[in-house]
Amino acid sequence: MSATVGTFARSLIVLCMAGSACRPPQEPGKIPAPPQPPPMEQSADAAELPHQYVRVSRTFFEEPKRPLMGEFTVSGTPDSFTESGPVSWKRYGPDPLPASAINPNEKPIADFRDYTACVEPVGLCFKVMPDVASLGLSERDIRSDQLRAKVADAWNVAESEVKLRFLDADRGDGWVKVSFQVLEPRSAVLNIKIWQ
Predict the structure, then answer these.
(1) Domain-by-domain residue ranges, the chain?
(2) How far apart are CA 138 and CA 55, in angstroms?
(3) Any idea what the Cα angle at residue 133 is, between residues 68 and 87, rounded to 5°?
């Protein structure tokens, strides 16, 4: 019997050395502690987003309860300005499907291609995914081309000179606010607020 115990002990040692899960000997009457989970690691996307990721329902823009109003404010410079007034939601694209992509004997059921839609004349534009009922208020979901053009026009500089960085976004009951930092040609803060 001692040969069997010795063989068992040697196999256990070999298994433990090979990387198999080995537990220390258990004292009688004690329950071993459960294994601890590995530490949580932050995803690369979360590390890039210093702000809380905010989403807003597309119906806020597409089917507002009251007419939409907007305010576009650049502050923090001697030539700060504010524009406000009624705004509207305008869809851009996607381009119609080419005739070669459509079977003439069948009618397409739906078109799930992404497109851009903007709050005009403010210039706040979003990447819209037709099969998702909300819009991301984040750097990767907001298109800043029209915002840069609007700042460039107000400051009488070339659009290529204007550099923006997304700061944060927030929403509440009947309003949405998005903020950018103007990095060039001079430092300022750009706030866009839309409400119903």
Answers:
(1) 49-94+110-195
(2) 8
(3) 15
